[in-house]
Amino acid sequence: MARTPIQPTRQPPDGNDDTSGASGIAGESSPMLDVADVRSANAAGDLEASAPQATPPASVAAGSSDQGITAMQYNKRVTALWTINEVRNCWAHVDGVGWRRLANNSDSGVVALNMLMAHARQMNARVDYDDGTGMITQAYVW
Fold it and tell me: What is the mean pLDDT of residues 51-60?
């Protein structure tokens, strides 16, 4: 029995647009999904229909440091993940905190953190993480 391959329905961006997202790095994108979208998608069981669309809050886009305490966070849940076809650009949405970028200092580090966050999201597991630098640099998934 032959299987029909699944064809992509969208194409990656052409790279000509100059977007500067919450990451503060010109040309890099940032997640654009708000908490209401995540909760409604989770309730409906349809995350694909709620792909990131909304823009981040103005304070995040401006790179403001008024995002609250940036230290060890305990007993949190990952509600969404976001990546794009840019080098080391991965984000996790933490319930009650918002979007946090995964540390991007090495390929293996960002892959490991992305895998931990994906596991935490899938299992709705407790996550303790450190974002003292404004990025999640270490995480413990229980």
Answer: 53
